[in-house]
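Side project, low priority. Logging it here so it doesn't get lost.
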Amino acid sequence: MGKYGKIAQLHSLMAEKKISCTELTKQYLDAIERDNASLNAYVKITPEAALETAARVDAKIAAGESIGLLEGIPMTLKDNISTKDIETTCCSKILKGYVPIYDATVWSLLKKQNAVLLGKTNMDEFAMGSSCETSCFGGAKNPHDTTRVAGGSSGGVASAVGANLAAFGLGSDTGGSIRQPASFCGIVGLKPTYGAVSRYGLIAYASSFDQIGPITLSVEDAALVYDAISAQDPMDSTSSGQKEPTVSSLGKDIRGKKIGIVKEYFEGVRPDVEKALQNAVEVFRSLGAEFVELSMPSIHYCLPVYYILACAEASSNLGRYDGIRYGYQTEHYTDRNDMVCKTRSEGFGKEVKRRILLGTYVLSAGYYDAYYKKAQNLRGAIVKAFDLTFEKCDVILAPTVPMTAFPEHYAAKDPVETYQTDICTVPANIAGLPGISVPCGFGDDGMPVGMQLLGPKFSEATLLNVAAQYEQAARETVFRPVEMGVSL
């Protein structure tokens, strides 16, 4: 194991009986009670369930049994991942009070390994946003500067992990919602290949784009969690599981690996962000990697294609929230139609309503061919362009976001400009590719900059190894821990 793995460090402490799982869990719960007020990372804390699991792990250790690497590790889940008997709101008024009767597959897999769930974390409402500020609980703050956003939509997970209020967390990535907040908070976020991780129990935003993945403090931790959750699942017809384990691939030499630089990814990138990426390029050169300059003009179409298709799917997926079966229901209405209309008007926030309206518009008669059908055709062209690009390189290096974390309420002033910050992350979701964001330095404002590595479908083993080699070579200069949360 590498020297930066938080999970391996905590596992060793418990296995060597230097700390009990109950003591460790209490330290995290105390830190959450102390620091969450300034970060708003958690929207639900589950101390009883956490301590119950910790007691089971302690009993195994006391009996002389060995424990798995994720056993007893304190972690968190984004609030759109279903948890049996624990409220799951998607940070929306319309789902307040909703308690699932089943577990999402990813949580079921971690639960069987006795991972310790500390609570559910903040997010943009129904995962629609890039700042976490569309949450009905208010946005999560960035642990590097609490006047700035943690990013979105998995901002709560990134804030909690970045502030040492959880050892790792699971988020979801529809257009960059794992990678963008990981970049903003200076940590690691992995969006797996579409289908590698089961979506069963993930509350849907856009089903052909959604993917669950880990947010962690190191690449090694991301590989450990990915291997644990990437199993084929009969409950998800799009699930295929992983093709090969990733942890055993870490540490391989990357000399001779071809890294593609696609020039369109660097258009409009802030100069200080580009400088950090150029420094990363030099690190890779020192490791023996080779660079190939490439062009993909179809990248220019990714943003409109993403927003047309994702909003179309959202308008369909969110049709189920009508106040009849579960969730929020308006108090005053005249008839059933009036009840549904008022329930949805009062229950959804502005950004969700905006995307439902856009999605309904592009699916309506007279506009379907002009927008939706054209976007689907372009999606096929983008997939083909990536296939051709990966014939010339092993991975692509790109910015995760063209800028660093923006100040609070920045998104509310200009939603279109905020959408444009997704330009570097949405292509991977359109093509179903794996992508990882790792810290690569700091901007002129002192905030973390993220580097994104993309690979062909099911190339997670290669992708994580390339990222791990970079991390081992550059970690001390590109990662800055924050003085919050648990320090061990």
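Brief comment: The mean pLDDT is 96.
Revisit when time allows.
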